[in-house]
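User: Need the bound-state model for S-adenosylmethionine:
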Amino acid sequence: MSRLDSAIRRLQAQRACLDHACAAIADRPGPVFELGLGNGRTYDHLRARLGDPDRWPIYVFERKVAAHPDCIPPDERLYLGDFHDTLPRAAADFRGQVVLAHADMGSGDADANARLAGFVSQALAPALAPGGLVLSDQPLAMPHAETLPLPEGVAEGRYHLYRIA
Ligand code: SAM
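Assistant: Bound-state model below.
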């Protein structure tokens, strides 16, 4: 498989997982967390799929905003800074309310990814609503969560989906 094939597969899998999660919360409005704005692709997709921002306000976490200008969240919905600082604060702000969290935070450093995933698993947990979903590019160790199957066509391990008990 060429690197282009691999990139296309990764993005198709990401889109399929986002679509799947958005459909799963279609009857369940509430705050949504997007961890890792990057260039804003997945934020834009969530925004387009979820629609009404009053029903599904998306709060974005990013250390340094460098997204496409059309994909920058409003200031009041941006937690600017390192996850280690912003996530505990946001978890206190939204205790038990978040219906979907999407984390796309990986870099090329596997050890750093594992450390960050460990921190995010613990820090995110208090924000999540019962039955809330967590979708992540990294495997997480979410407390009180079950691992859900990925949508059809997405290879195991490519993405990770959890539901809070
Ligand atoms: N979802 C994005 C998209 O579709 O364009 C891509 C996200 S990119 C893979 C990961 C992002 O997470 C980067 O923009 C990086 O700055 C951010 N990030 C990684 N670790 C972070 C941390 N500890 N605190 C804040 N932001 C972090």
